[in-house]
Amino acid sequence: MKIFVEGTPLFLQRTGVGQYTKNLMDVLLKLDERNHYTIFGFLFIGKRFTNKPIPEGPKLSYKLVRYLPSKIFNAVVRRLFLPPLDLLALSKPDIFFFPNFVRYPLIFGAKSIVVIYDLSYIVQAQFSASPNRKYLTRYVPDSVKKADHVITISQNSKKEIMEHYGVPSQKITIVTPAINHQIFFPRPDKEVEAIRQKYDISKPYILYAGTLEPRKNIIGILDAFAELDAGLLQTHALVLAGGKGWLDHEIHAKIKELSELDIIVTGYLPDEDLPAIYSGASLFVYPSFYEGFGIPPLEAMACGVPVITSDNSSLPEVVGDAGIMIDAHSTPALTRSMQKVLTDPGLVKQLRGRGLKQAKRFNWEQSGKILLEVINTIGRA
């Protein structure tokens, strides 16, 4: 079969959607001996294209269509309509794969698969930027209706898609994200010490990794840390490892308010620094208000770090029985759990062992096999 992949998430600076798409494409190209993939994209007028994120080869090619200036295209898509993608490509593949929520119109009759990661723009709308919320609210209902199959990333997201859009269970397949276990594993003391020096971390530390934005409940982390016993506050630092996020001004105001405490904000961390900074942490906290999946707790567990996370959305699926789960709205519950882990070596040993085992359940090859089965089934239908 000829399979076209809408490549926008691959061409932009890769966030979660782009990483998910890239990792699945890498695995599909290893596993699939029958089908050919074409990554489709726009060569916007006025911009040069230099980025082919996956090398071309016998199983993969690129098709780039010169089109409107990107600002005009984005304005048209956001405010007016989605253009027919197969007409723009002048191609009729067997399947179009749309990895970023929205299925473009197809007038030549190709089958289609769309990935809907979560419904945070509906169930936690206060944490979504207005333009993105309006865009998804406008186009996702028609996308799930017209797609031949829907991919999502957790049982929780599948349940929400079924409830909000009336999609039958058999039309949705869960293909979970994963991590690279050759990268995320407990790192030796030498690497940990180097990363501590790089980010000027002089004490044992509690770690959060991710964007600094309201949905991640960073203020809850800061408040819970400030309520630790005085002895623990003297001996431990809080490290917030992540880049600038949406509506982060209140977070930085709270950090300034707690300036007498040892709080380190690293800014955006390069991928190569993550395994060591995880491995050196006494504890990883991730009390998010909502997650479509939750990669950072998985990375932390794979690096042998005890995890405290929320009991909402998909997070219980990620951590299983390997982490401590708390109500994201309860600062006292987070403080108590942090204190318990930091003062109980037996609990730390237990959580580390369970976490390493739980993390192994998620790997890209298994996810790729599930997606390939969907592709072949839809192609045969």
Fold blueprint:
Blueprint: E1 2-6, H1 8-11, H2 16-31, E2 36-44, E3 60-67, H3 70-79, H4 85-89, E4 95-98, E5 111-115, H5 120-123, H6 130-146, E6 149-152, H7 155-165, E7 172-174, H8 189-198, E8 205-209, H9 218-226, H10 230-235, E9 237-241, H11 249-257, E10 263-265, H12 274-279, E11 283-286, H13 295-302, E12 307-310, H14 315-319, E13 324-326, H15 331-343, H16 345-359, H17 364-380
Parallel strand pairs: 1-2, 1-4, 2-3, 4-5, 5-6, 6-7, 8-9, 8-11, 9-10, 11-12, 12-13
Structural description of this entry:
The protein is of the alpha/beta class and 381 residues long. Helix content is 43%, strand content 16%. It is built from 17 helices and 13 strands. Helix 2 (16-31) crosses helix 17, helix 9 packs across helix 15 (331-343) and helix 13 crosses helix 16. The protein is elongated, with a radius of gyration of 22 Å.
Strand order of the largest sheet: 3-2-1-4-5-6-7
- The structural class is alpha/beta
Helix content: 40-55%
Main pleated-sheet profile: 7 strands, parallel
Q: What is the residue-averaged pLDDT?
A: 94
Question: Nutshell version of this structure?
Answer:
With 381 residues, this protein is α/β, with parallel strands linked by helices. It contains 17 helices and 13 strands.
Q: What structural keywords apply?
A:
6-stranded parallel sheet, 17 helices, alpha/beta, 381 residues, 43% helix
